[in-house]
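F.,

This is the one I mentioned.
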């Protein structure tokens, strides 16, 4: 079942069907005071700042994007007007990990 933006459920475990030899993955966790934030949104912005994608964080506060090689910004939006930007580099064959504490 999907909700909100119709993205699949976001979990900490990378699906077994993902072939990292063909994918660049940007994955992260959003926490507040050490606890996962389940009602936040992660936006993926390209190197020029243009919106590319958005997903809601899952039960573990996790978000995941499949992106092209390059420089990206992950913008986390959370209740209370919280907005945090984090720069990340994606590379095929790797999982770029982003930890966001709000």
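My design for it:
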């Amino acid at each position: 079942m999907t909700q909100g933006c119709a993205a699949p459920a976001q979990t900490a475990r990378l699906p077994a069907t993902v072939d990292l030899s063909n994918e660049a993955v940007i994955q992260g966790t959003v926490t507040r005071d050490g606890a996962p934030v389940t009602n936040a949104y992660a936006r993926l912005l390209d190197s020029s700042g243009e919106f590319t994608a958005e997903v809601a964080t899952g039960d573990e506060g996790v978000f995941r994007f499949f992106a092209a090689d390059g420089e990206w910004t992950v913008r986390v939006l959370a209740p209370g007007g919280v907005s945090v930007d984090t720069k990340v580099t994606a590379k095929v064959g790797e999982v770029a990990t982003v930890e966001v504490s709000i």
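The longest strand covers residues 24-32.

Talk soon.
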